[in-house]
C-alpha cells in the first residue's frame, strides 16, 4: 500500500510539472489518428472497389489486363504494408525517400514531420481497410447486384446506391477498430522525431528518470482516449441501426388495389360486400392503434 501511495504521489508531481507537455502529446496523437484513419478509409475504399470490379472472358483484352494489373498492385500493396511493422515503414519512408532521391525528396521542419507521419499511418491504415472493404462488399447478397443490373443500373450506380451503403454499415466496427489501433500505434512515430504522446513520455523521463511513474500516466492517457473513442463509435453504430420501432404506412395504393388492405373502420373491400366478414368494434380499434403507433420488431 505504501508503494501505491508513493506511486500516486510521484505521478501527481509529474503531472503538475509536465501537464502541458502531456496534453500537447495527446492532442497530436488524436489529430494524427483521426486524420490518418479518414485518409486510410479513402485509400481502403478505393482499393476495395477496384479489387472487386467484375470482368468476364467476353470483355475486351485491354479491360481484362488493366483489372488484373490493378488487382496485382493492390495485393502487393496490402501484403507489404500488412506484413511489416509500422516502425520499419516509418524508417523506410522518412529516411529511404531522401536516400533514393539523393536528398531531393525529404521531410524538413515541423510541417515535414507532420506530413511524413500522416503519410506513414494513412498508408498503413489503407492496407488494412482495403481488405475490410473487400470483405464488406462480397458479404452483400449477390442477388442485390443482379437485381440492380436487371433494372438497368450500371456498375458504378450499383456500387454507390446499393452495395457500398450496406457495406459501409458492415465495416463500421472495423473502421473503429483501426482508429483505436492508430491511437496506440502512433507511438512508433517517435522514431522519426514526431512529438506525440509517447514521445513526450520519453522526453520527460530523459530528464528525471521517473520511467515507471510517467509510463503509468501514459497508460491512463491512452486508456482514456481509447475508451472515449469506443463509446462514440458505439453511439454511431446505434444511430446507423435506426429505431427499434416504426409507424406503418397510412395508405398504400398497391396494397389497396390488390384487395388485401384492411381499413380500420370499413374492413376489407370484401367486407363491404359481405356482412359475414365484418370487423367487430374491438378489432377496428386495435387496427386503428396499430396504424397510429405501429408495432415494434418483437411483435412481428
Quickly list its features.
single chain; 300 residues; mainly alpha; MetI-like fold; 2 domains; flat; disordered C terminus
Give a nutshell description of this structure.
The chain has 300 residues and is an all-alpha fold. The protein has two domains: 28-195, MetI-like (MetI-like fold, Orthogonal Bundle); 253-299, no CATH class. It has helices spanning 2-50, 61-82, 86-100, 109-138, 142-150, 155-185, 197-208, 211-241, 253-257, 269-273, 281-293.
How is this structure best described in words?
The chain is mostly helical and 300 residues long. The protein has two domains: 28-195, MetI-like (MetI-like fold, Orthogonal Bundle); 253-299, no CATH class. It is built from eleven helices and no strands. The chain has helices spanning 2-50, 61-82, 86-100, 109-138, 142-150, 155-185, 197-208, 211-241, 253-257, 269-273, 281-293. The chain is flat. 22% of the residues are buried. Mean pLDDT is 82; it is low at 255-261, 272-277 and 296-300. It comes from Candidatus Flavonifractor intestinigallinarum. GO terms for molecular function: transmembrane transporter activity. It is found in: Cell membrane. Belongs to the binding-protein-dependent transport system permease family. HisMQ subfamily.
Q: How many structural domains does the protein architecture include?
A: 2
The CATH H-level homologous superfamily of the largest domain:
MetI-like
- β-strand number: 0
Principal-axes shape call: flat
Amino acid at each position: 500500500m505504501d508503494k501505491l501511495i508513493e506511486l500516486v504521489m510521484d505521478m501527481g508531481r509529474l503531472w503538475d510539472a509536465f501537464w502541458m507537455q502531456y496534453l500537447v502529446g495527446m492532442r497530436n496523437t488524436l489529430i494524427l489518428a483521426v486524420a490518418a484513419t479518414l485518409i486510410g478509409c479513402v485509400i481502403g475504399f478505393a482499393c476495395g472497389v477496384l479489387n472487386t470490379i467484375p470482368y468476364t472472358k467476353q470483355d475486351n483484352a485491354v479491360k481484362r489486363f488493366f483489372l488484373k494489373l490493378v488487382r496485382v498492385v493492390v495485393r502487393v500493396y496490402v501484403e507489404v504494408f500488412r506484413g511489416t511493422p509500422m516502425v520499419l515503414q516509418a524508417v523506410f519512408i522518412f529516411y529511404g525517400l531522401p536516400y533514393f532521391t539523393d536528398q531531393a525528396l525529404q521531410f524538413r521542419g515541423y510541417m515535414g514531420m507532420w506530413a511524413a507521419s500522416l503519410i506513414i499511418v494513412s498508408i498503413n491504415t489503407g492496407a488494412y481497410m482495403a481488405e475490410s472493404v473487400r470483405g464488406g462488399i462480397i458479404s452483400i447478397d449477390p442477388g442485390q447486384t443482379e437485381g440492380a443490373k436487371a433494372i438497368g443500373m450500371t456498375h458504378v450506380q450499383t456500387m454507390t446506391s446499393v452495395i457500398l451503403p450496406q457495406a459501409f454499415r458492415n465495416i463500421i466496427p472495423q473502421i473503429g477498430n483501426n482508429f483505436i489501433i492508430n491511437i496506440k500505434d502512433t507511438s512508433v512515430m517517435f522514431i522519426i522525431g514526431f512529438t506525440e504522446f509517447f514521445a513526450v513520455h520519453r522526453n520527460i523521463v530523459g530528464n528525471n528518470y521517473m520511467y515507471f511513474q510517467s509510463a503509468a500516466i501514459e497508460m491512463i492517457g491512452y486508456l482514456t482516449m481509447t475508451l472515449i473513442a469506443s463509446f462514440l463509435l458505439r453511439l454511431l453504430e446505434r444511430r446507423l441501426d435506426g429505431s427499434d420501432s416504426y409507424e406503418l404506412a397510412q395508405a398504400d395504393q398497391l396494397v389497396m388495389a390488390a384487395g388485401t388492405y384492411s381499413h380500420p373502420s370499413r374492413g376489407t373491400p370484401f367486407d363491404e360486400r359481405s356482412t359475414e366478414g365484418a370487423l367487430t368494434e374491438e378489432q377496428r380499434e386495435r387496427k386503428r392503434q396499430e396504424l397510429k403507433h405501429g408495432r415494434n420488431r418483437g411483435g412481428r
